[in-house]
Amino acid sequence: MPTLILVRHGRSTANTSGVLAGRLPGVALDERGAAQAAALPARLAGIPLAAAVSSPLQRCQETLRPLLAARPGLPLHTEDRISECDYGDWAGRKLAELNDEPLMEAVQQHPSAAGFPGGESLRAMQARAVDAVRDWNARIEERHGAEAAYLMCSHGDIIKALVADALGMHLDLFQRISVEPCSVTVIRYTRLRPFLVRLGDTGDFTSLVPPEEGAGTAAERDAALGGGAGAP
Fold first, then answer.
1. What is the C-alpha separation between 1 and 142, in angstroms, rounded?
2. 20 to 30 A Cα–Cα from 35, which one of 14, 48, 62, 123?
3. Residue 56's closest CA among 38, 32, 81?
4. Which residues form the active site (predicted)?
């Protein structure tokens, strides 16, 4: 079966402002996110890609533009099932204020039981994303062979949920996974089981440097990096 290369979108304006963007329109890459996207073609150079599949949201589409420009023959497909989690009434709110919501404790400690008011549950989010990957695995293998590789550009919580599925982890443990903006995660699927080949690879270790005083709590920084309410 094919190898799936998962790319989280580059850093967005919502990441830097500490807002839970969800599916709100108009959330673009910030300056650093655009630079991350521009570096993506070189990072993936030499890897033959059968196709690129993207979330419909602007920040994912923008992340793939440099790669598509560098590979004019690479087909792009938009897949609604790998769009961001529908955070419902939480979308557009500051992560700092959401930390005081009683639901946030369930999101962090028991996510399989958490559903967002006016939105979807994390369990439903994982199910649709896993179904999308299974369908695309079959499609890519049929058209390009079992050794083919293809790319999906999606969101932090989606990628974490897919990794949890590949590792046979319960969704309640997916908060232990972290994927930074524009990081690359690779899952190689086989007939019997998937193999996690890369996790959150950016080639950049600056995020490990201790922050300066006043840069916010560790939870707030992780939330901005993690991308959604499911951030660790």
1. 9
2. 48
3. 81
4. 9, 84
Answer yes or no: is pLDDT of 191 > 60.
yes
Assess contact for 164 and 183: CB atoms under 8 A: no
Residues annotated as catalytic (active site), given as ranges:
9, 84
Question: 113-146: buried (b, 16+ CB within 10 Å) or exposed (e) per residue?
Answer: ebbbeebebbeebbbbbbebbeebbebbbeebee
Residues in the chain: 232
Binding-site residue positions = 8-15, 59, 84-87
The annotation places the binding site for substrate at 8-15, 59, 84-87
Residue 53 has phi, psi (to 5 degrees) of -125, 135
Convert the pLDDT of each residue in 66-105 to its tens digit: 999 999 999 999 999 999 999 999 999 999 999 989 999 9
| Structural domains for the chain | 3-220 (3.40.50.1240)
37: enclosing H helix or E strand: helix 31-43
